[in-house]
């Protein structure tokens, strides 16, 4: 199984990071010792000459801590941010290599959560794991120091430790439940935001702003409540430990220490040094407690990423050298139980070289037909065959190299025009970009922009009109240069002149031999096709 983070590549830097952590922890032990020297040698024994030695030691410790902290931060930046970046890159690559069927069980919001938050948590998991190892060594060392200073005070301070870890364990379990709930709500919230960003024009056209605001408010309230509850558990744990260890235990130790000093079973310098070390000891325990509280959600993130990395696309043994035909053989499909069949025993065959128009009323299922053809969804029954080969046996990358699909919901990204076009073909040169844009009747518009191809168009091309977006998507499809071109209402936002010019390009001799399938409601498009299929002919429903 391939992990999203290759720990072996960071092993040397991790060792250096641990060494520096131990150095820092060792340096933190010296200030209380300097304090003890000051109390014993300067205050109690009146050895003024020791003052300069203690001050020098303090200065050396301060300089050492500063140097180690800088080195520690430098090494940290070379490990954990790079881990998160590697995890993001590997998860993104995994998404791109998987067939849509492999990811069909996940929503867009859930996949986004894994790519963004879970990768960050996975890097934090290893950071906290190393810190836990360091703390696991430091705590016994601190225990030994406390016992050497005064074993009676040390034993009393240790008596309540089991209670601290018991409370932390209980709170961790409850915190994990709230964290999981928060992730589920975040997934819904992300799905909601993605849908609204994508279909913002439809929302405004149908006057759904108020309804969307209400949904947003409800999701945001749920998200806020779950965030508050998950952090309340951390706060309660911290408050309990601080009250018990910093207030009750510390006050009790001062009281007991005072009695021991009165009965000459301890000295005032030793008591004060003990309390300094005890404060450091408590801080380390609080650090361990925080790590344990956070560890549950970090481990869950690692498991979710491992789950994604374990996904495999189905074996597809058959190749597709050239497009010859696509055929629907008694295909049926519905979007869920209790909903009617969108397709019922559909039969359709389209051969190489045809120009086919598919007509039907809005909402009848034309786009579903194209999504089935593209493999975005899977038939409930029946079979789709490419060149006579069942679709499930053909690698998707080979299929998409021969067939280019322009869906109604095709995506543009918040990148430059050039970068959006290069999704069609990454190695396309400048002349090829210009030729594709000229064929899609958008070159003149691009040349009129101040930054031309370097113009950023906003999320889903929000800075473009509907027609400009469609022409840019068509240009991107032209760059793919596939043998089959499938348009799902791809010219619906164009005026008749632009549509006519693009159709002329599609049907002229320079792309002779290519196959064109158009889902459309326009008579001008239909009139130019060699074959017209009414929706009623496709389904017995």
Any idea what the shape is? elongated
Q: Work out the count of structural domains.
A: 2
| Number of E-type strands | 9
CATH architecture identity of the largest domain: Up-down Bundle
Strand content: 5-15%
Q: What is the CATH C level class of the largest domain, in words?
A: Mainly Alpha
CATH-assigned homologous superfamily of the largest domain: ABC transporter type 1, transmembrane domain
Helix content: 55-70%
**What name does CATH use for the topology of the largest domain?**
ABC transporter transmembrane region fold
Topology pattern, helix = H, strand = E: HHHHHHHHEEEHEEHEHHHHEHEHE
In DSSP terms, counting alpha (H) and pi (I) runs of 4 or more, how many helices?
16
SSE blueprint and pairings:
Elements: H1 11-44, H2 49-97, H3 108-149, H4 151-158, H5 161-198, H6 200-205, H7 209-262, H8 268-310, E1 325-333, E2 343-351, E3 355-359, H9 366-374, E4 381-386, E5 389-390, H10 396-402, E6 403-406, H11 417-421, H12 430-439, H13 443-447, H14 466-480, E7 484-488, H15 496-507, E8 515-519, H16 523-527, E9 531-534
Parallel strand pairs: 3-8, 3-9, 6-7, 7-8
Antiparallel strand pairs: 1-2, 1-4, 4-5
Helix pairs in contact: 1-2, 1-3, 1-8, 2-3, 3-4, 3-5, 3-8, 5-7, 5-8, 7-8, 12-14
Structural overview:
This protein is α/β, with parallel strands linked by helices and about 550 residues long. The protein has two domains: about 5-310, Up-down Bundle (ABC transporter transmembrane region fold); about 325-535, P-loop containing nucleotide triphosphate hydrolases (Rossmann fold). It is about 65% helix and about 10% strand. It is built from 16 helices and nine strands. It has helices at about 10-45, 50-95, 110-150, 150-160, 160-200, 200-205, 210-260, 270-310, 365-375, 395-400, 415-420, 430-440, 445, 465-480, 495-505, 525, and strands spanning about 325-335, 345-350, 355-360, 380-385, 390, 405, 485-490, 515-520, 530-535. The strands form two sheets. Strands 6-7-8-3-9 form a five-stranded parallel sheet, sandwiched between helices. A four-stranded antiparallel sheet has the order 2-1-4-5, covered by helices on one side. A hairpin with a 2-residue loop joins strand 4 (about 380-385) and strand 5 (about 390). Helix 2 (about 50-95) packs antiparallel against helix 3. It is elongated. It starts with 10 loop residues before the first helix and ends in a 7-residue tail after the last strand. The mean pLDDT is about 80.
């Amino acid at each position: 199984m391939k992990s999203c983070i290759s720990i072996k590549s960071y092993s040397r830097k991790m060792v250096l990071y641990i060494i520096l952590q131990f150095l820092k922890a060792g340096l933190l032990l010296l200030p209380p010792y300097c304090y003890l020297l000051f109390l014993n040698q300067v205050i109690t024994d009146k050895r003024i000459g020791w003052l300069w030695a203690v001050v020098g030691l303090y200065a050396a410790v301060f300089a050492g801590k500063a140097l180690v902290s800088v080195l520690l931060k430098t090494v940290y930046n070379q490990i954990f941010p790079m881990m998160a970046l590697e995890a993001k890159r590997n998860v993104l690559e995994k998404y791109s290599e998987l067939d849509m069927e492999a990811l069909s069980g996940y929503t867009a919001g859930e996949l986004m959560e894994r790519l963004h938050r879970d990768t960050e948590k996975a890097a934090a998991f290893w950071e906290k794991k190393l810190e836990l190892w360091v703390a696991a060594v430091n705590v016994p060392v601190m225990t030994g120091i406390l016992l050497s200073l005064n074993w009676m005070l040390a034993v009393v301070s240790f008596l309540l430790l089991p209670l601290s870890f018991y409370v932390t364990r209980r709170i961790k379990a409850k915190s994990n439940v709230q964290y999981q709930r928060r992730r589920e709500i975040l997934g819904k919230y992300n799905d909601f935001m993605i849908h609204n960003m994508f279909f913002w024009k439809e929302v405004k056209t149908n006057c759904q702003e108020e309804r969307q605001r209400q949904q947003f408010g409800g999701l945001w309230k749920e998200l806020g409540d779950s965030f508050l509850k998950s952090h309340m558990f951390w706060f309660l744990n911290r408050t309990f430990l601080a009250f018990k260890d910093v207030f009750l235990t510390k006050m009790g130790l001062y009281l007991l220490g005072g009695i021991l000093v009165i009965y000459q079973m301890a000295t005032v310098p030793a008591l004060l040094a003990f309390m300094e070390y005890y404060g450091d000891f408590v801080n380390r325990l609080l650090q361990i407690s925080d790590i344990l509280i956070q560890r549950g959600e970090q481990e869950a993130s690692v498991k979710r990423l491992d789950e994604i990395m374990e996904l495999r696309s189905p074996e597809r043994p058959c190749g597709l050298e050239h497009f010859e035909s696509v055929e629907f053989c008694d295909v049926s499909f519905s979007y869920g139980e209790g909903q009617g069949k969108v397709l019922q025993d559909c039969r359709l065959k389209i051969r190489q070289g045809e120009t086919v128009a598919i007509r039907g009323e809005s909402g009848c299922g034309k786009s579903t037909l194209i999504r089935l053809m593209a493999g975005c969804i899977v038939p409930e029954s029946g079979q789709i065959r490419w060149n006579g080969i069942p679709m499930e046996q053909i690698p998707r990358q080979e299929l998409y190299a021969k067939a280019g699909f322009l869906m109604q919901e095709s995506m543009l990204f918040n990148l430059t025009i050039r970068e959006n076009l290069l999704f069609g073909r990454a190695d396309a040169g400048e002349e090829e970009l210009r030729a594709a844009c000229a064929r899609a009747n958008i070159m003149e518009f691009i040349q009129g922009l101040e930054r031309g191809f370097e113009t950023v168009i906003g999320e889903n091309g929000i800075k473009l009109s509907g027609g400009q977006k469609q022409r840019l998507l068509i240009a991107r499809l032209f760059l793919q240069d596939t043998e089959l071109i499938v348009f799902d209402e791809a010219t619906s936002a164009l005026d008749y002149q632009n549509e006519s010019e693009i159709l002329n390009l599609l049907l002229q001799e320079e792309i002779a031999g290519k196959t064109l399938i158009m889902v459309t409601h326009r008579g001008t498009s239909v009139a130019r096709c060699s074959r017209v299929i009414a929706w009623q002919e496709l389904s017995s429903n």
